[in-house]
Amino acid sequence: MKRKFWSKQILDLVPYTPGEQPKINDLIKLNTNENPYPPSPLVSKLLAQFDIDHLRRYPDPESFELSQTLADYYNVAVDNIFIGNGSDEVLAHAFMAFFRQQQPILMPDISYSFYTVYCDLYAIKATAIPIEDDFSIDLAKYNIANGGIIFANPNAPTGSAISLQKIEQLLETNQQSLVIVDEAYVDFGAQSAVALTQKYDNCLVIQTLSKSRALAGLRIGYAIGNKNLIEALERVKNSFNSYPLDMLAQACAKTAIEDEDYFQSSLKKIVATRTWTEQQLASLDFKVLPSKTNFLFVQHKNLAAIEIMQYLRDNKIIVRHFTKEKISNYLRISIGTQQQMQSLIECLNTLLREEEK
Questions:
Q1: Residue 148: closest CA among 191, 192, 110, 115
Q2: What DSSP assignment string belongs to 240-298?
Q3: Which listed residue, 2, 39, 97, 118, has the most CB atoms within 10 A of its CB?
Q4: Mind listing the domains of the chain with CATH numbers?
């Protein structure tokens, strides 16, 4: 089909492929790292009591109450907070605001695939730094001339985490450009770099409420950094969409953050199930990478990843497979409820017994 009126840049663009959202209700969905538990019950209470008359008005374009809640939670100033429509939008604005430089930006060769999409969209030069043989990220390799640095911590889809000490060492030696730490999964066991944003003016941390706060359906992301960085993000936002976060999302996000007890309880359950699942998979001859996330990245000793994925799918369990060469024989398995993960292990046991016949 001829793509009439398309610009050349869009013709050449390879978009990000999100995880599948099947329309079948009885699937065990372990492919998009969603939280297996509902949001805080206080969110449900808020929605039940919400005055819908407010919806005829535009939301607060600055999301001030939510920004203040986040500032209090992280012990930073309110002008150190930027709110966006999901961390993907925050990342998009950050790429536009900071990474259109003469030097290429640096990123791991295996990481969140949206980074390369943004580079293509905004014509940003990039250099991919190979991850190590054990799939870890060696930040010492990033001490070269660059127009910016971005990495996910913990990394996706591998699940590995970098210590705060190594991140600070990078910030100390690389003061000529911005370092973005994408912390979508940090709550599941890694060290956050938020405190470093108060010490280094070239550190920007980006987080989301989609994973650990179970609000993926509302699309809430935010950045924490020096006031100068936040001002640049606001300038991009207000040149694109002045009202990125709707009224309900702002209210629900504020409520979810304030319910610390429920948050910690959910995290504890997910981490316990992750540990149990890791042990079970190892007993089935899976190589399981160490994870500080709500997913596991695994490879079987004998069976191909694509074969396992298809078998699970045939049995109504969906996991994520990536085609990039270095990781094409791995599967990413989101951590579901304990019952869902038991079903996964039972299904894999059945597959392995069938293969032995």
A1: 115
A2: T-S--S-HHHHHHHHHHHH-HHHHHHHHHHHHHHHHHHHHHHHHTTEEE---SSSEEEE
A3: 39
A4: 8-38+261-356 (3.90.1150.10), 41-259 (3.40.640.10)
Q: How many CB atoms lie within 10 A of CB 355?
A: 12
Handedness of CA 133, 134, 135, 138 (dihedral sign): negative
Report CA-CA distances (Å) from 170 to 3, 141, 164, 180, 223: 44, 10, 10, 11, 19
Q: State which residues of the chain have pLDDT below 70.
A: 1, 357
- Identify the CA nearest to 131 among candidates 148, 156, 104: 156
> Which tokens is 265 given?
């309880």
pTM of the model: 0.95
Taking only the tens place, the pLDDT of each residue in 10-26 is 887 887 777 777 777 78
